[in-house]
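# step 3/5: fold
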Amino acid sequence: MSATPAIYLDYAATTPVDPLVARAMSECLTREGDFGNAASAHAYGHAAATRVAQARAQVAALLGAAPQEIYFTSGATEANNLAILGAARAQADRPPHLVTLRTEHKAVLDCCRHLERVGARVTYLTPDRDGLLSVAALAAALRPETVLVSVMQANNETGVLQDIGALAALCRERGVALHCDGAQSAARVAVDVHALGVDFFSLTAHKLYGPKGIGALYVRQGARALLQPLLFGGGQERGLRPGTLPVHQIVGFGAACELAQRALPAEALRLAALDAQLWRGLAQLPGVHLNGARAPRAPGIQNVSFEHVEGESLVSALPELALATGAACNSASGEPSYVLRALGRDARLAESSLRFSLGRYTTAAELEQAVAAVRAAVERLRALSPACELPPVAGRAVSGEAGAQGEGTWVRFQLLLEGDNVKEARFKAFACPHTVDTARWLCQQLRGRTRADLIPGTPAQWARACAVPVEKLGRLLVIEDALRACLTRWTEGATM
């Protein structure tokens, strides 16, 4: 970590472990502590089992559940898998039908796609433009053979909160089980699974200041028969999730849940105030959109789209901030955020989006710095865009451009001429950082060149000189086209 670490605004990705949680975990690691196997029938095992039982009660209390309804897993991803695949496996006599949202976490969507490959049928519903699923839309999707509906409570990208209680009431009426991914909501809003009426609820410790690698699935008492296990051997967790219990992680999870429950009322209000401060600062920029603005949202998660800036360049321009982005070049899939696309954002706007997720250690002063940094970066990138004209020059000049903002790369060059030579070259670009850096480098190479040898080399050579990844070579072709447009205008005598 650098001497001046970036301001951390990515709490929805993970949270630091609370010092009190770390202390509780350390008590279960060494010989002097409760390190035993919780399944062992001796004093060490009994001590470990006691710690696990206490943690189970702490997790249950956060959710308004009974301790026996909590099943420990390796995290929310496994909990989602257990709920979805486990419910499908319990219907071995017929191909099951499931319903979910297009805006769910990949841990849900990938489970559903796997089930489709083995014969299940899945309906993927599109929420409204604010990210909400209506009861009527869900009712229309249910079939006699529907066995499970899976809808997250707080969206991990936008923070939009679904009306889980209303959706659960419909599912109960139709005799369909409801699973809820609560990884983002458990530490941000008060949760009472019994009042909500859900059958299954997933959560994970590392979203609420606990350790990574531990989570839980709430299984409503009476709904256990609706699930089949995914793993076998050992019989732990009442046979639903076998494997030696990681006592230190479970203890940390329990401690984190107790701290979260205690802090929740005041913390929710504090995060809401910080949300308001953040949006007030960002909203002063024109062409800024708060995704899910009209929907109820979990405090501390804001997803904002910025018009007329390229997504990867925006993130690269903010090294002082640690946050998430919808930029395609920074995503593992190479695609813009599927959540924002489902909400109706076009690809360019989805890519030019930032998720600000605030947490326990976020301060008002940090947000003030963050707002200033974002506003400066956006204004600088918009000024660099070809949509903003280059200032007029004295003397002869030619210009040429290629690409378009809608295509993700748009470059314009202006060459100031002196006789038959380039005196100076300037550019504008709506492009990724590699494309911008290459255009800037080329402006230096163009000085002094004649019309006969205007273009200095090939895009492949530029890529080597500027360390451009091979997958971005196509963007350099746009630069080449813009230079060729300059050459054509120069040859035709169309100077400014």
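# step 4/5: annotate
The CA atoms of residues 429 and 436 lie 6 Å apart.
# step 5/5: archive (pending)
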